[in-house]
Specification:
With about 375 residues, this protein is an alpha/beta fold. Helix content is about 50%, strand content about 15%. Helix 6 packs across helix 8. The chain starts with a helix and ends in a 9-residue tail after the last helix. About 45% of the residues are buried. It binds NADP nicotinamide-adenine-dinucleotide phosphate (NAP).
């Protein structure tokens, strides 16, 4: 694609040089090229180069404008300044997205202001897809992954050596020599209490494999992860259908200046299904949303998604929301929805009030 476009540009500029030489005179460090004694024929080449440079600069300016439009928040006490709309890497793995799709999806999202990418050791090929697609742009984004299920979700292993081996494998798959964040992937409270898994992360950080360490999970384990003071960040479920964390963990996480990453921030858009989805992962949110029966979910699809996303990002203490998708245009579409700004306090409080009114005691944070 780039190759074809590049050829076309050189062709156009070459013709213009032959007929309109003055328009193609370019300056380098203030010196007209003629003064430098360069032949016309090389000016043709330089002109093509100049056009490429100016097109590239125009594209860069466009990208910078898009990036400026995306709000960023500092992730707690870390030095990470995260785009509020991040990318969740589970869908590309579990849905078997192609390499080409991931190149388009992540490449265009990076151009438009994405700088947070989250994945995990067990999201099928997600790590490799990300590494192959944008490994060459590594300095442009913060990379988060997780460990604990290197052999698959049902085969958790929280001993130190397998965790360290899993992190090493993630580095290879992600085509990088450092992670910005390594997270324990939803181990239990009992596992956290033994301390061995946390030590594995601390060792990885000491070796320079990860700059920060975090816990990804919910409920009592998430609360302990905040209380124990050993993690830099908490990744936890927060959405219109999952509000436990807003009361249970976020206030303390904020007080301790932990970075907070909202997972499942759109409640999987479970309201889009007319009937209970066959996929168990979507079922609890689907049922909760039926009971919650928010009026705004009956509005136009974009309004509903935009309100849901702005709710999550409005929860005090949340720094970034990692939305999962396999669709190349989705990140930009959701970024555009955020241009509406913060959800008005009244709308935010209405969603909170409805939750407090109907949420059953069993509606804990969903892993
Ligand atoms: N235990 C853990 O650590 C844990 C657990 C769960 C999730 N996570 C992390 O959180 C990330 C996000 O979670 P998730 O993907 O399950 O939930 P999510 O982000 O709430 O929902 C993703 C779903 O929303 C749809 N969607 C996104 N934007 C949309 C729009 N504008 N209109 C309609 N549909 C839209 C996507 O469909 P399309 O594909 O059609 O866009 C996708 O199916 C994961 O990728 C993962 O990184 C971590």
């Amino acid at each position: 694609m780039f190759g074809r476009r590049r050829k076309k540009m050189i062709h156009a500029c070459t013709n213009r040089t032959l007929y309109e030489p003055r328009k193609c005179s370019i300056k380098m460090s203030g010196l007209p090229m003629e003064r430098a004694g360069i032949l016309l024929v090389s000016r043709v080449g330089l002109c093509a180069y100049g056009t490429l440079v100016s097109n590239h600069m125009a594209a860069s300016r466009g990208r910078m404008r898009a990036k400026e439009a995306m709000e960023q928040r500092r992730l707690g006490r870390t030095d990470i300044v995260a785009s509020v709309l991040g990318f969740g890497g589970s869908e590309i793995g579990y849905e078997g997205a192609s390499g080409r799709t991931v190149v388009r999806l992540l490449g265009s999202a990076l151009d438009a202001g994405l700088n947070v990418i989250d994945t995990a050791e067990c999201y099928e090929d997600s790590e490799s897809l990300i590494g192959k697609a944008i490994g060459s742009r590594r300095r442009e984004f913060y990379l988060f992954t997780k460990c604990g299920h290197a052999g698959g979700w049902s085969r958790a292993d929280w001993r130190q050596a397998p965790l360290v081996a899993s992190i090493e494998r993630s580095l290879r798959r992600l085509a990088t020599d450092y992670l910005d964040l390594i997270q324990l992937h939803s181990c239990s409270l009992a596992t956290l209490r033994t301390g061995e898994a946390i030590e594995a992360l601390e060792r990885a950080r000491a070796r320079g494999w990860a700059r920060y360490i975090g816990y990804s999970g919910d409920g009592e384990a998430a609360r302990y992860a905040v209380e124990c003071g050993r993690f830099d960040t908490l990744q936890t479920s927060i959405s219109i259908a999952d509000q436990e964390a807003i009361d249970r963990t976020l206030p303390l996480a904020s007080a301790r200046q932990m970075g907070v990453i909202a997972k499942r921030p759109l409640a999987n858009v479970a309201w889009r299904y007319e009937r209970k989805p066959a996929e168990p992962y979507y079922q609890s949110y689907w049922s909760r949303l039926r009971t919650l029966d928010y009026r705004f979910l009956k509005s136009a699809p974009d309004t509903a998604v935009g309100t849901a996303l702005r709710f999550t990002l409005g929860a005090p203490g949340v720094h970034t929301a990692i939305v999962g998708t396999t669709k190349p245009e989705r990140w930009q579409q959701n970024a555009a929805l955020l241009q509406a700004g913060a959800l008005p306090p009244r709308e935010f409080e209405q969603i909170r009030a409805r939750w407090h009114e109907v949420a059953a005691g069993s509606w804990g944070g969903q892993v």
